[in-house]
Amino acid sequence: MADYMREYWDDMGLMYYWRNLDDGLVYSRPFDEEELAGIAKRQMLDKLGEEAKEAIVLNDGWIHANSAFLLVEAPTQDELLTQIRSLTEQASYQAGTAKRVIKVLAELTGREV
Predict the structure, then answer these.
(1) Are residues 69 and 79 in contact, defined by beta-carbon separation less than 8 angstroms?
(2) Is the Cα torsion angle 89, 91, 94, 96 positive or negative in sign?
(3) What is the chain's Cα-based Rg?
(4) pTM of the model
(5) Helix axes of 39-70 and 77-109: crossing angle, nearest 10 degrees
(6) What pLDDT, on a 0 to 100 scale, did the predictor assign at position 2?
(7) H helices within the chain, ranges in order?
């Protein structure tokens, strides 16, 4: 467990680790029933976190490209078509992201989608 971490759930080894603040040592125990039941939820959140990091990079690029397009005073037909295709791709990506977030929120709140 990394020095900066206070606790860690090892879903592969089914162990919970925590750092005792009094002595600084790391202790562990097997997962309890609640932690076993939470594996899927934690994995879903981890995956969403990884996707969020990728999305930030993609969105930054799209924002830059869209801002640059707005500076073009008289875009050509090819530039317009390229921009429309890019905006379509962006909209589809954002819709997929919203769908994943909705599913995670439903799982976290125990509600069906």
Answers:
(1) yes
(2) negative
(3) 22
(4) 0.64
(5) 160
(6) 86
(7) 33-37, 39-70, 77-109
